[in-house]
From TrEMBL:
Species annotation: Gimesia fumaroli
Protein name: Putative 5-dehydro-4-deoxyglucarate dehydratase
Cross-referenced SUPFAM superfamilies: Aldolase (SSF51569)
Record keyword Lyase present: yes
Family, as annotated: Belongs to the DapA family.
Keywords per UniProt: Lyase
Sites where the protein binds pyruvate: 53
Length: 310
């Protein structure tokens, strides 16, 4: 664990903020700042701006740097910000350095989009970028590469702080966590649908996209499981599941589009997702409006409870 990060700081909800675009398909940094400030006010303290649900693969490297910068500008010094890193290795090195200069706490390696992968190639890629940025590092596992064996080997590196694990094989996950002798934080990378099972198997936190529209609910769910109140945690998860189940339709292809429309129901205009994300039909929008109504009502009640009495 990096000396600059305490393990308990990672044991929370890791929010992947939606990315706001304007009518010209450029970053809407004013809307992004306002949204991030609301997430911070709700209690979010770990941010992954520009990552998967933030449309990583449709963003230019300079846009990722701008998202990191605005996140740092509107959050407090207690905030951890991990910049998503991928693409060609030279671009990855440069983006990592620029994101650190823009205020990132560290970097998170995104799943490889490259063909013909091996652990050896992955390790060389990781270390090349880590040597350039020299900062706290998260690894995102969503496929066979990186292997659990490689992750356990990388755990000995002083810059390694955690793994965003999204393979959803609970015995494999538990076995790997138990084999870690260096104290990495193993994070559920599959959001609220799988978080209870990961947390039971050794995860201290989970990533969230749904937290963009119901941050208080996501944080309450985490708090319940972290305190051992599993029945309460499952009750809250049941309230959030309509979002997660809808996003998972058709091979998770509604992941971003659903949330982009759902956030418009809160009064925020983030624009449509960039291609090749799917567009929604009027029937699908109606379905989302219906399922979001009780969730937004509960979210508003939790926000009101948190607000100081005037």
């Amino acid at each position: 664990m990096s000396p600059s990060i305490e393990r308990q700081q990672l044991q929370t909800v890791h929010i992947v903020p939606l990315t706001a675009f304007n009518e010209n398909d450029q970053l809407n940094l004013d809307a992004q700042a306002a949204h991030t400030a609301k997430l911070y006010e709700a209690g979010m303290r770990v941010y992954l701006p520009g990552a998967g649900t933030s449309e990583f693969h449709s963003l230019r490297p300079d846009e990722i740097v701008k998202l990191v910068k605005v996140t740092r500008e509107v959050t407090g010094p207690d905030t951890l910000i991990f910049a998503p890193i991928g693409y060609q290795v030279g671009i990855a090195r440069q983006t990592a350095v620029e994101c650190m200069e823009a205020g990132a706490t560290g970097i998170m390696f995104m799943p490889f989009a490259h063909p013909y992968m091996s652990d050896r190639g992955a390790e060389e890629y990781y270390l090349s970028v880590m040597d350039a940025a020299d900062c706290p590092t998260l690894f995102y596992k969503k496929a066979e590469i990186p292997s659990d064996a490689l992750l356990l080997e990388l755990a000995s590196d002083r810059r390694s702080v955690g793994v965003k694990y999204s393979v959803n094989q609970m015995h494999q996950f538990r076995t790997t966590v138990s084999a870690d002798k260096h104290g990495l934080e193993w994070i559920c990378g599959s959001a609220e649908r799988f978080a209870p099972y990961y947390m039971l198997a050794g995860s201290g936190g989970f990533t969230s996209g749904a937290g963009n529209v119901c941050p208080h609910l996501s944080l309450a769910m985490h708090a319940a499981f972290a305190s051992g109140a599993h029945a309460e945690g499952m009750r809250i998860q049941h309230q959030i599941l309509p979002i997660e189940d809808y996003r998972a339709r058709a091979g998770d292809s509604f992941n971003i589009s659903m949330l982009k429309y759902a956030i418009s129901l809160t009064g925020a205009n983030f624009g449509p997702p960039r291609p090749p994300q799917r567009t929604l039909t009027s029937e699908q929008e109606a379905e989302i409006r219906e399922l979001m109504e009780p969730i937004l009502e509960t979210e508003a009640e939790l926000a009101q409870q948190k607000s100081p009495v005037s």
